[in-house]
């Protein structure tokens, strides 16, 4: 096979779309974190719970995780179309894989949260912090792969 498998200009546009899409997904995760912190603060202060924020947090989390996984798959497809080598950008691939695994873990743990004092809340919070810490690094590495 001769790489790239698609027109070079189309590939540039698709790579830019991949980066933009994943940057927007990262912003959705920051919004999700803001909701989670708002809920956590109210719960810790034993204040009235912000039910609209809880509803939005519960609905958004799994959806945003799916969007992130789709962005990950999109990136792998782009690399395969461009070079045919999945390990063309190893740090970016590694962190993307870590992010996907963290998101799967976060969604799985969130399913076990029951009641105000659930033991699953702290691991869910810690994984969320890890996601927020890794995502900007992933975006930075993606910019290196883009240019």
Provide structural commentary.
The structure is a single chain. With 147 residues, the protein is mostly helical. It has one domain. Helix content is 79%, strand content 0%. It is elongated. The two termini are 24 Å apart. The mean pLDDT is 95.
What is the overall silhouette? elongated
Q: Low-confidence segments, ≥5 residues, pLDDT <50?
A: none
- Percent range for β-strand residues: under 5%
**Biggest beta-sheet profile:** none
Rg on CA atoms, Å: 18 Å
Tally of distinct domains: 1
> How many DSSP-defined strands?
0
- Overall pLDDT metric: 95
Order of helices and strands: HHHH
- Please bin the fraction of helical residues: over 70%
Spatial gap, N to C terminus? 24 Å
SS-based class: mainly alpha
In DSSP terms (H or I, runs of 4 or more residues), the helix count works out at 4
């Amino acid at each position: 096979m001769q790489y790239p498998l698609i027109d070079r200009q189309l590939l540039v546009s698709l790579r830019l779309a991949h980066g933009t899409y994943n940057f927007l997904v990262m912003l959705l995760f920051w919004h999700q974190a803001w909701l989670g912190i708002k809920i956590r603060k109210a719960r810790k202060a034993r204040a009235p719970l912000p039910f609209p924020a809880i509803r939005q947090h519960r609905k958004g989390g799994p959806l945003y995780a799916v969007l992130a996984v789709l962005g990950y798959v999109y990136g792998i497809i782009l690399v395969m179309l461009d070079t045919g080598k999945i390990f063309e950008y190893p740090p970016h691939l590694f962190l993307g894989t870590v992010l996907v695994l963290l998101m799967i873990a976060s969604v799985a743990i969130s399913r076990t949260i029951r009641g105000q004092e659930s033991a699953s809340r702290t691991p869910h919070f810690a994984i969320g912090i890890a996601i927020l810490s890794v995502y900007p690094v992933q975006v930075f590495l993606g910019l290196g792969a883009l240019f």
